[in-house]
Amino acid sequence: MTEPPEGYLGAGARIRRGPAPELVEAGYQLELADAPLLQRGFGLADLAHAIVLGERGAIPAADLRALLGALLDLLEEDVAVDGAYGDLANLRERLLTQRIGSAAGWLNAGRPRREAGRIAFRLALRSRVVELVAAVARFADGLVALAARERDTLFPDYTYAQVAQPTTAGHWSLSFAYPALRDVERLRRDFAWVDRSPGGAGGVNGSRFPLDRARVAELLGFAEVATHTRDAIWQTDGLCDLVSHAAIAATGASRFAEDLELYCTDEFGLLRIGDELCRASALMPQKRNPYALAVLRGGAGTLIGRSAGVLATQRTPSGRTDNLLYAYGEVSGAVELAARLLRLAAACAGSVTVDARRAAQRVRDGFALATDVAEAISLSTGRDYRSAYDAVGRAVAEGRLDAVALGIDASALDPAAALAARTVPGGAAPEPMDAMIGECRAAVTEALRWTEVTRAARGRAEDQLVELARSGSRSSVS
Amino acid sequence: MTEPPEGYLGAGARIRRGPAPELVEAGYQLELADAPLLQRGFGLADLAHAIVLGERGAIPAADLRALLGALLDLLEEDVAVDGAYGDLANLRERLLTQRIGSAAGWLNAGRPRREAGRIAFRLALRSRVVELVAAVARFADGLVALAARERDTLFPDYTYAQVAQPTTAGHWSLSFAYPALRDVERLRRDFAWVDRSPGGAGGVNGSRFPLDRARVAELLGFAEVATHTRDAIWQTDGLCDLVSHAAIAATGASRFAEDLELYCTDEFGLLRIGDELCRASALMPQKRNPYALAVLRGGAGTLIGRSAGVLATQRTPSGRTDNLLYAYGEVSGAVELAARLLRLAAACAGSVTVDARRAAQRVRDGFALATDVAEAISLSTGRDYRSAYDAVGRAVAEGRLDAVALGIDASALDPAAALAARTVPGGAAPEPMDAMIGECRAAVTEALRWTEVTRAARGRAEDQLVELARSGSRSSVS
Amino acid sequence: MTEPPEGYLGAGARIRRGPAPELVEAGYQLELADAPLLQRGFGLADLAHAIVLGERGAIPAADLRALLGALLDLLEEDVAVDGAYGDLANLRERLLTQRIGSAAGWLNAGRPRREAGRIAFRLALRSRVVELVAAVARFADGLVALAARERDTLFPDYTYAQVAQPTTAGHWSLSFAYPALRDVERLRRDFAWVDRSPGGAGGVNGSRFPLDRARVAELLGFAEVATHTRDAIWQTDGLCDLVSHAAIAATGASRFAEDLELYCTDEFGLLRIGDELCRASALMPQKRNPYALAVLRGGAGTLIGRSAGVLATQRTPSGRTDNLLYAYGEVSGAVELAARLLRLAAACAGSVTVDARRAAQRVRDGFALATDVAEAISLSTGRDYRSAYDAVGRAVAEGRLDAVALGIDASALDPAAALAARTVPGGAAPEPMDAMIGECRAAVTEALRWTEVTRAARGRAEDQLVELARSGSRSSVS
Amino acid sequence: MTEPPEGYLGAGARIRRGPAPELVEAGYQLELADAPLLQRGFGLADLAHAIVLGERGAIPAADLRALLGALLDLLEEDVAVDGAYGDLANLRERLLTQRIGSAAGWLNAGRPRREAGRIAFRLALRSRVVELVAAVARFADGLVALAARERDTLFPDYTYAQVAQPTTAGHWSLSFAYPALRDVERLRRDFAWVDRSPGGAGGVNGSRFPLDRARVAELLGFAEVATHTRDAIWQTDGLCDLVSHAAIAATGASRFAEDLELYCTDEFGLLRIGDELCRASALMPQKRNPYALAVLRGGAGTLIGRSAGVLATQRTPSGRTDNLLYAYGEVSGAVELAARLLRLAAACAGSVTVDARRAAQRVRDGFALATDVAEAISLSTGRDYRSAYDAVGRAVAEGRLDAVALGIDASALDPAAALAARTVPGGAAPEPMDAMIGECRAAVTEALRWTEVTRAARGRAEDQLVELARSGSRSSVS
Predict the structure, then answer these.
(1) What pLDDT score was predicted for residue A437?
(2) CB B266 to CB D365 under 8 A?
């Protein structure tokens, strides 16, 4: 029988051996890979737990002082991670015990290993979701700015990659901003899910120790307590939602990138992105490869898989650990990847320039006004639309749209007149465009303000907790 | 050159051949498979379009009367679907033209084929999402009722499928109700996304015809207009969300089913579901197979794939049809499958009975109180928790927990006393349980009320639209 | 207690109620939706089981005759499917019992309900996989024919949708044929997995009845017996593989479609697909929408989800039914969808025409020869490649590649000379192209021959089985 | 305009700016994260390219000597990775140019950046796939050894987690070995796909430089050349297959883990895994949590997502980089994760012990022999099976199976007799078991031998290449 490494087990009531190397490799090292993500949050969770037990008189004064002091020290250190000694909770307990002896044993009072992990995970996610919201809002901001710059720039709308009708570059750009702003809303709701404290839940449904869930939540700066204790500890629906929303946001950016890739070809020549988003070829001297767009597209595909994986992992009974074991790294990684992608998409949006001459030419050459002409015929003659359509269809087949031949006013062939008529809400005429640009700008501003307020509140809560712990670690009386 | 079938093409300006059999098989038949889903919605969308154009004077009075009459007739018919003539829009136009000639040609005025499809899809989804919300709410209702019935029934809580701590069957049941109620919230937000009208958008950004987006939305009973016209027609983020939420809800039901499967084994013997949810074996006379639970588990896995597929399909440029071509069937099918699964899960929850004797015995035999004993030692002696844990660990290793030997009060070994101490918010003691049951009941009631109100409003809007059309089809003056 | 419908249960030893409506809706109707797929296979499996038991003397002669006769009758009928009476096995047993009484009871001898289902499923898959192989082979065939037609047609190769180097349309086309031929190989291996008989396995590991696994396999025309009985009945790895391969094949077709969509735009103007694969717009008279390509792309995305779903469903314990309950419909549906897509892709490949003039112009305008020029400089001067590249890069930046100025032979600017130099194996020069075209043609021919042989063998086996049953049903002596 | 960092661009013909920070963060750092994976392979690919160009006289002798020497030096170094200078190819070229000036420029002769990457990726995958094959073979080995140890140990077979029929622990164990051995076959075919050289392909279809594809393949120890040059560089079907197979193998291990989790509960008590695969709880002194099983289950779910993500990313046009940009890390990571999981699964299989007494008792208490009894009745009386089944069903309902009352021989109730009758191929009787154990052992042995041979061959090829380069770097004459 292999002796367990010192500190790996507690009393070892029912387990008497150290971990198999295969378990260290596949299990503990997997968990420890998340240590950089979780380490500080573990420290904060431990501080809050100790403070609450201290406030409610469950820990002797001297033990409390020693514990808080040791935890504060640990907060500034990187714990050397070695899977042979177990996971992060094991390693931290081992270090604390070496430093302050049995006083370290209070950390497990009324609290399973997983609770500190859940809290640390939510703290880490809170930051990451805020950064993702900021990145999506910046992407929307870039799109809205582009829409404002090109509000009146004639542009061909495509369906099936075939010229459809006249539009403006601004209207096209805004069609990506609206989904991005819905992404912001979704992610803020995800934040609200994350921002609930599972702390003070006991093993499953409370404890004989005098826990105080509201106080733990307050100390850690959570907006509220996740009510049902078992649900609070094991719930994963919000994680599935979060990764799915990261994938949806990245897919929106990927869709924008696919349009850019097409419109930036020499053949289309409608748009151009900056040199700083392209790369040269090592072999072909004439190349200017829009590398950023490939990064966006591949990233979206990768995130779609992350979303499927997190969801597939949730098909499991309750209370089984496998449903959350991988989630820490997978979900955090997905949110971070999405944030990097959205920042890149924002850079792309910011760098887009339009070739207005080419765009106008494509509107003309692509018979984009054919529909307007048919509409003009129908409107001026009272003939049904299908009959007018057929007449125009024949003209297009002959290769030319001629106002006189078709018996209509020349303005029917004027793209500017066409756009001026697009006055329905959400349309391309200046008035609905201005209304939409204003609406989107307000939403972007509000989202960015929220990210700043939220970051600041988080920092303040953390400072206060550390300050409280510091004062507790120095107090001469409990 | 194959002659196109009569009515397949309009003027055939640029296309002069009928569809290849491979395209009929893979394309039009795929679309027509959704005809039962979309047919009525197409009819309503056409009525609303015609009425609005009529109200704004764009259609001559006689044409309008003929058109409304023919559309009303068609509303009551099942259009025979034959892919050789194209999709549902083609087939409907063909029938209308056969019946009322060129007056049918007004339907395409200011409106591409896809707009009626989008509206019909949203109308169909509206109903389906309401039914899914109702099914999830009923599932939550069954869980809450079970929780109320078994509020005080001692039950072992398991982690890793190993006995952990004492709980109640009611607390365990409620841990599935909370996620289900979050599913309800999510799905109602999805409903709000669905309940926006894309109508009156023109081809991409308006039209020269006098469209009226607000009036179209009102006639079809939509809560609001989806603002940006291009976004309104092509957006899919809400569909990804909806399928993902259907999968999350089904995964919650599957998790409940996995617990049931375990607890209903003869070996665990803690629970029992009704005969009406089981099936016999054709070979083995002694079997009582919990078939419903397999249906729930496999269904969740299937829906996870649907969610991945809808998302994968969205990685595409804008305005390309492929992103919505399959969505009609896939998303509707997923929502319907989820509703069937949740109704089955509700039936399972409703049929659960608890073997309280076996449950209490497992609490005892599984040393579920070991943690409480260690807590009692720590609380009564002031020793740190880890030390107390070690002492109890040794006692468990010897196979018995003895209050006297451990120097604690006998109540530490009383499960009822343990549960009575679980008074934290969300805990298993009667007070927090009653609070949670009340909160959940209120949420269920409000959700079910919403489904009724929403169904009724939908019916009313449809009746009014048909009535308006009927009066328009009869009016002697435009 | 609800009375079970007549015939739903056997002795009802442990189940005394009919199925709940929720179970009928979510379970039995789900299974019965597969009835068209499985019905004939069930009949054949039942015939083979009865014949083997008869041959080995386990069924009395009169019972055997009655049973075979009734099974043959049933083989020609569509069983009316009503979920209230259970699944297909239940319904068949019910019908047989009504017709021949207790002789029907022999069908369950040594055989659980699931065995006939597994056999029927494999028989159905066998046909579908053969059709998918045929479709992929036809797609490869179309690509190879295109490659042969356009073996020498100068064409720009693109990376990042930017012109890279000169190639031929034939070389580009062949780059899709190779993956398709690997799809054929993969699918034929999947067929080999499918073509193993799970028959005669008993409930789990044999039976007291004198089963004969080899004889069952022979009667049903399977190539071999799936050895381990429990594995034979429950294995799903081949199904995951099959759906994944259907998705990979469809993704290959989708990739081809994405290239076509780009090259068929007016802006690129390099290729054209047939009118019979396009559709008109109802609104825009000038449109010619490549509808087939959208069908291909969306289909691939949908199949990616099917693959994820089947795999996600397999994360389950052994022997649990949920892992195969949905597979029948999901896997068969996926293989069929893939076959439809590949047939459409073959039609696309067959219809492609190349605009050689535009292609040659793009090679020139896109500076596709820049690399060749740099190579020529390096080869003729002995300067390292990067230096030559830099010189050419500067020339491109100035907008012109001039042989004299760069001090090279004019042939460096001749695309034909460039292509003639591509003589490495797999390259674009005529010799390697001819070698590859020959290799691919041979592979296509062999694949199509295999599909014919396999279809014929399957038909023969089925005829023989029915003939044997017919003779058994008539024989006066057992 | 931001100055590009020194060495980032070549001549910068069409790009004149350094990369945006967002591109460095999302693009280059993503690529550089794979540097540890690819670095050595890049070095080997560069050596082979230089040697072949040297052998065919394309590089001047002095340049060749300098280049080989510098490449050999670099082979032993870790290139410090800094995304501001681009990807690994950029960084290597920069270092080489600093050291040997323009001689470094030969590395790009006839070769785009991506070719070295593709080669390095395949070299890295080769090793990883071999290790995964070894891990799966060891898992199968452990299962076969368990099957041999427990060949005759009576065990209940479960379906729906309900006792079905008698089996042996050995037969149950072998039912996981067969799928694992099919995983081995699949992965070896994937290896064959990986083991083809894309080298010497030129930019897309050859080059004016005298490339030699067979020689490059030989130098790098590839089994063969991937024929079609464009396919060779861009193909991804084998990667999709590989990740899918990694997921399937992990799902097989997860299924085994799910069975273990159930059978290792105190309630079932049939099996036990070693302490070294479990962990203690920090809170609950009595717990013995089978942590390894949670690692296996969650790992399978995670890999299912990886598979979906790689496939989703492939839905893209040809020649677009996004389809391979993420694949390097995703596919390698998936294969490595699967190998870790399979090694853990092997450790689990190796540690399983069976509680034969409990198992026998469950067979008895679970009426596992009910089917055998019904079979005995049918066989001895000639009554059809359903009638016998009904009789036994009634007996079970009364709670006892009594041979006398049922009028059968007592041996019908003897599990050993039942098992002895399971003599069909693949059955549980000793003869078919021995045959299967022998067959599986041979397959395991052959698989492990292959991994050793393959590892050795790979090492030899690499040594020879380095030796050849060393001699080239020293040679006084070219």
Answers:
(1) 98
(2) yes
Q: What value of ipTM does the predicted structure carry?
A: 0.96
User: Does C115-150+172-202+224-355 match C21-109 at the fold level?
Assistant: no
Cα distance between residue B212 and residue B52, in whole Å: 7
Which segments within C345-408 are labelled E, that is strand? 353-354
Q: Return the CATH superfamily for domain A115-150+172-202+224-355.
A: Fumarase/aspartase (Central domain) (1.20.200.10)
- Phi and psi, residue B280, nearest 5°: -85, 165
A residues 52..111 contacting D (CB < 8 A): 86, 89, 93, 108, 110-111
CA distances, A467 to each of A48, A463, B302, D262 (Å): 12, 6, 51, 48
- Reading the block at residue D122, the tokens are 């395949």
Q: What is the largest CA-CA distance in chain A?
A: 99
| CA of residue D137 relative to chain centroid, distance | 11
Q: Which residue in chain D is spatially nearest to C175 when comparing CA positions? A: D231
Q: Collect all residues of chain D within an 8 Å Cβ-Cβ radius of residue C206.
A: 421-424, 426-429, 432
What count of other Cβ atoms lies within 10 Å of the Cβ of residue B80? Answer: 9
pLDDT digits (tens, 9 = 90+) for A16-29: 889 999 999 999 99
Task: Give the best residue of A155, A157, A159, A162 to mutate against chain C (max C CB count within 10 A).
Answer: A162
**What is the domain partition of chain A in residue ranges?**
21-109, 115-150+172-202+224-355, 369-421
Say if D7 is an interface residue toward chain A (CB within 8 Å). no
How many whole angstroms separate alpha carbon D224 and alpha carbon D196?
5
Q: Cα angle at A88 between A82 and A91, to 5 degrees? A: 60
A317-365 pLDDT per residue, tens: 999 999 999 999 999 999 999 999 999 999 999 999 999 999 999 999 9
Task: Measure the CA–CA gap between D444 and A436, rounded to whole angstroms.
Answer: 66
Tell me the C-alpha distance between A99 and A87, whole Å: 19
Residue C85 pLDDT? 87
DSSP result, A161-185: TEEEEEEEHHHHHHHHHHHHHHHHH
Q: How many CB atoms lie within 10 A of CB B89?
A: 22
CATH for the stretch A21-109: 1.10.275.10
Question: What is d(CA D430, CA A387) in angstroms, rounded to the nearest whole number?
Answer: 82
CA dihedral B131, B137, B138, B140 (to 10 degrees): 150
Contact yes or no for B302 and C309 at CB 8 A: yes
The answer to whether B266 contacts D162, with C-beta atoms less than 8 Å apart, is yes
B155 inside 8 A of chain D by CB: no
Please, which residues 347-366 of chain B have a Cβ atom closer than 8 Å to chain C? 347
User: Which residues in chain A come in under a pLDDT of 50?
Assistant: 1, 478
Strands D224-225 and D196-197: parallel
Q: What angle separates helix A237-263 from helix B169-194, to the nearest 10 degrees?
A: 30
* Nearest Cα residue in chain C from B87: C279
Instruction: Please give the model's pTM, rounded to 2 decimal places.
Output: 0.97
Query: Which contacts (CB < 8 Å, 24+ apart) does range C50-54 have?
Result: C50/C106, C50/C107, C50/C469, C51/C219, C51/C465, C51/C468, C51/C469, C51/C472, C52/C200, C52/C211, C52/C212, C52/C215, C52/C216, C52/C219, C53/C106, C53/C109, C53/C110, C53/C209, C53/C210, C54/C472, C54/C478
Q: Are the beta carbons of C393 and A266 separated by less than 8 Å?
A: no
Å from B167 to nearest chain C CA?
27
Which residues in B lie closer than 8 A to residue D267 (C-beta atoms)? 265, 267-269, 362
What residues of D are in contact with residue C228 (Cβ under 8 Å)?
171, 174-175, 178, 426, 436
- The residue of chain B with its CA nearest to that of D284 is B371
Interchain proximity D320–A341, CB inside 8 Å: no
Helix (H, G, I), strand (E, B) or coil at B2: coil
Do the beta carbons of residue B307 and residue B244 sit within 8 Å? yes
